[in-house]
Amino acid sequence: MTTFPNAPRILKGGLVLVDPQSARVQRIISLQYNPDSLTRNLQVQGTGGEEGNRSEAMRFKGPAVETLKLDAEIDASDQLEFPEQYRAVVENGIQPQLAMLESLVYPTSTQLLDRNAMAQSGTLEIAPMEAPLALFIWSKHRVVPVRVTEFSITEEAFDPSLNPIRARVSIGLRVLSVDDLGFAHKGGSLFMSYLQAKEQLAGKTQAGTFSTLGIGGL
Fold first, then answer.
1. What per-residue confidence (pLDDT) applies to 2?
2. 3 part of a folded domain
3. Is residue 107 in a domain?
4. Do residues 177 and 62 lie in contact, with contact meaning Cβ atoms separated by under 8 Å?
5. pLDDT for 96-154, tens place per residue?
6. Is residue 204 in some structural domain?
7. Contractile injection system tube protein N-terminal domain: from which residue to which, for each copy (predicted)?
8. Is the pLDDT assigned to residue 1 strictly greater than 50?
9. How many Å apart are CA 67 and CA 46, to the nearest integer?
10. pLDDT confidence of 20, banded at 50, 70, 90?
11. How many structural domains compose the chain?
């Protein structure tokens, strides 16, 4: 297959898993196709003071809580046309890709076995299992630490061995801020870089005027 030499390079969105202690990259997950839409919701974190409390009316308690929602498509139809080149797809369909995404919401089997061994040995307090730090990357301006909050898979087509060959994955994410991770955490510093990038982008917009609002001033 040939491409135009001057065609722009299309970047992929995806997720990167990082060791929360050493900051070592564990896995890079790029989406096969970029979603057509990315839904973002921001919940303002006000102080929640009593009505009429003037000292609290204009205060923030912390960064807005941002959530993301996207639908990603995975399709092996084109690859199945070249069975010699994509033998793993012929044998397994898209199950490896789905399993990789599902690892975002499971502790590892090793963690579960270690936890069971600790329980069997009579350990009084067992700390919750720690997941890798997940970073959602959507261009160089948006690299944010996230936690997966929703995950669903709709398998839409199968090969004769019932391996899925086309699926739609819906993923819900919650951006983790310095309120969640702290300023010293790797994810906290990445959130601050994300927030500062927002401020820099906002500074590139052209300022409005009172006349465009139909008033002469305040």
1. 47
2. no
3. yes
4. yes
5. 999 999 999 999 999 899 888 888 888 767 778 888 999 999 988 899 999 999 999 99
6. no
7. 25-173
8. no
9. 17
10. confident
11. 1
How far, in Å, are 74, 80, 130, 164 from residue 161 at the CA level? 18, 13, 36, 9
Which uninterrupted H or E stretch holds 133?
strand 133-137
The tokens of 82 are what? 């070249």
Query: DSSP code of 9?
Result: P
| Lookup: tokens for 38 | 């990315």
Which residues constitute the domain of residue 35?
14-44+59-198
Q: CA separation (Å) from 207 to 150, 210, 213, 214, 215?
A: 38, 10, 12, 15, 15
Per-residue pLDDT tens digits for 143-156: 999 999 999 999 99
Tell me if 86 sits within 8 A of 103, measured CB to CB: no
Give CA–CA dist 148/154, Å, rounded. Answer: 17
Decide if 20 is inside a domain: yes
Counting Cβ atoms within 10 Å, is residue 134 exposed (0-12), middle (13-18) or buried (19+)?
buried
Residue 31 token pair: 């989406």
Tens of pLDDT, residues 179-216: 999 999 999 999 999 999 999 999 998 888 889 889 98
Q: What is the rounded distance in angstroms from the CA atom of residue 92 to the CA atom of residue 79?
A: 12
Q: Which of 149, 143, 155 is nearest to 131 (CA)?
A: 149
User: What letter would DSSP give residue 60?
Assistant: B
Pair 80, 161: CB distance under 8 Å = no
Report d(CA 142, CA 138) in Å as an integer. 5
Q: Which two tokens stand for residue 80?
A: 């199945």
